[in-house]
Each structure stands twice: as C-alpha cells, then as structure tokens.
Amino acid sequence: MDAIEALVTRKSSAKLTTPAPGKEDLKIMMQAAVRAPDHCRLRPWRFIVVEGDAREKLGGIFEEALKARDPDATEAMLQKERGKPLRAPMVIVVIARIEEHPKVPKVEQILSAGAAAQNIMLAAHALGYAGIWRTGKTCFDPKVNAALGASETDQIVGFLYLGTAERMPILPDESVDEYVEIWDG
C-alpha cells in the first residue's frame, strides 16, 4: 500500500482480534513513529507495548485507578475497566515525555507524541492491521501514569489498540470542503 492510499483509507476499528502485529511489523511501526515531527529533536515520546497476560495486568491498573477516582464504582464498572486492554491482542501506550525547554513548549511535545501515535496507526494500517486510538480518564490518571513508569510531568496521549479487524467499518465518502477555507488576508 502506498503512503497516500494509507492516509486516505485508514479508519478506526473497535472490534479487533488476532493476529496482532508481529515483531518485524512492530519494528516497522516504531520506525514510522520516530519519524514524527519533533522540534529540536527532543524525542518526546515513549512507547510501551502490552501483549498477552500483561494486558490483564494493565487492566488491573485501570481498575485500581477507577476505584481511587470513584469509590462508588460498581462491580460492573470495575469489571468493564479491567477488561478494556483485552479488547485487542496488542495495546501500545504512547506517552509524551515532557521536559522544560526554552524553544519547545509543552503543547508541542504532546503534539509530537500524538504525531508519533498517528504514524503507528498509519503504519499498522499499511501493514494490513487495524486499530483504534483510545483515551478517556485513564490517560489523565496519575495512578496509571505512575504504574507505567511515567514521571509526573509526562502525559499519556493514548492507548493504541491493535490487531486484525473482525469486520472492516464502512466510512462514507466525505467531502473535505466543509473543513477547508482559503485565507486571503
């Protein structure tokens, strides 16, 4: 698949199954990730690959964080939170590693990590896999951050759920005209 085809055909797939990207495909996806725009070459990202039984451990972290955020969470809510990482055979946690820098504000470092995440999603698609980028309260939870070894200044920008689509979602053709304007001063 060429680059333009990958860009204009990628879509999110929530229903994922095996196989997940293998070792060689994961390496290619990470090579794509580190080509993201990066002001001053800070490399403001970290990627944590979670597969197999480690997904259950990640689910336990999610559950404990929910308990702390919401002491009134029901067992059904806790079970749902615990099961989130099991929705795909692979989860890649993308963390923006934020540092104080005189030329590169925090927002640029977060955007760079987000661009790296998008490159992973595009590379996965180009390699024949499917996925969905998920966020939510879990991304901004200090307990989840700490459990994943991130510093207090780091920011999780997303959980990339990857595998093979159970069924390909159909997206309607969309005109870009409503999102684009030409500014002439």
Automatic annotation (TrEMBL):
Top EC class of this enzyme: oxidoreductase
InterPro entries assigned: NAD(P)H_nitroreductase, Nitroreductase, Nitroreductase-like, YdjA-like
Nitroreductase domain ranges (all copies): 9-163
Annotated EC: 1.-.-.-
Flavoprotein keyword on record: yes
Pfam (any one): Nitroreductase
Cofactor: FMN
SUPFAM superfamilies registered for this protein in UniProt: FMN-dependent nitroreductase-like
UniProt keyword terms in alphabetical order: Flavoprotein, FMN, NAD, NADP, Oxidoreductase
This protein's name: Putative NAD(P)H nitroreductase
